[in-house]
């Protein structure tokens, strides 16, 4: 067996990918706009197609800190918004589009068409939108070590990011229905635990031999290594309506990864979450997707639970010195405020309760991003 090469990157650098919705400005329905958009934009590695034609993905450069990442994402989004306006489209994002009730038109690339053929009916309904954060890793062994330590925190990130209460015109009762839908697909969900990078390589090559995956990107776990980029990619989160909300989640992840990396070396002490039996971990994901920040989190093998908000406060206290060293303290203060004000799913439901209109919900998502980009002083991306 030949090990996959892990191309180490700048230690604990940052990157971000955001999947956005392409909209008809009048109806606010999803529109299959990616092909004309790509034809209108010169080849640009920061603006890419996604699985379905009503989505566009932006990718940041490799950034050294959270402030640089925020500036970069704002610039790319400002550029994207301008190009979409020129083509008669608007943009917004959240984990799902609240009232889309049609099947996906898949972007006609060989990879996406093969995925559609393999996934069947599930692929036709794949109208979901995610936020992904990359953290640079010095080696594959460090990447899989952090992957195992970070796994118990994934339901926390899901609850904080939940922004998909509506699906096909109905309130699902879930804070993140996107995660529930994706859990039915064969390549999504929680990763396994791998003691070493060699163990992960053995798993992947065996999976290739079995016809499960062709490339690493075919593994759609909530958390996965990206050897070609030299990163650990955190994928559990719903897309966020605003850049600020995406950045505060990235600041939490960045601080948490550094904290977990240094913890065995005795540089930090404090609150840690431990791995649980698989069914308890699965239950924590369900609770986070169902009740969001109102969930009770199972925190030990004896079945003890606590409100997820209390768990989050303990995490923020433990990683505060790390966040301060990274210049991220102000972002985590904003994150702490979210425990009082609620995540996007709360705002969306409030708009619907006040208006009775899911179109008004989408309009509020458009407005949130538009106001943020209008007030930003960031230059348009070249």
Topology at a glance:
Blueprint: E1 14-23, H1 34-40, E2 47-49, E3 55-59, H2 66-86, E4 90-92, H3 110-119, H4 121-124, E5 130-136, H5 140-150, H6 154-161, E6 166-167, E7 170-171, H7 177-182, E8 188-189, H8 197-209, E9 220-221, E10 223-226, E11 231-238, H9 243-262, H10 278-291, E12 296-298, E13 305-307, H11 308-325, H12 329-341, H13 344-355, H14 358-375
Distinct helical segment count: 14
Helix content: 40-55%
Q: Order of helices and strands, N to C? A: EHEEHEHHEHHEEHEHEEEHHEEHHHH
Query: What profile does the largest beta sheet have?
Result: 7 strands, antiparallel
Roughly what is the average pLDDT, rounded to an integer?
93
Q: In one word, what is the shape?
A: globular
Beta-strand segment tally: 13
Q: How far from one another are the termini? A: 44 Å
* Estimated share of beta-strand residues: 5-15%
Residue stretches low in confidence (pLDDT < 50, at least 5 long) are 378-382
Radius of gyration: 20 Å
The secondary-structure class comes to alpha+beta
Question: How would you describe this structure to a colleague?
Answer:
The protein has 382 residues and is α+β, with helices and mostly antiparallel strands. It is 46% helix and 14% strand. The chain is built from 14 helices and 13 strands. Strands 1, 2, 3, 4, 5, 10 and 11 form a seven-stranded antiparallel sheet that branches. The protein starts with 13 loop residues before the first strand and ends in a 7-residue tail after the last helix. 46% of the residues are buried.
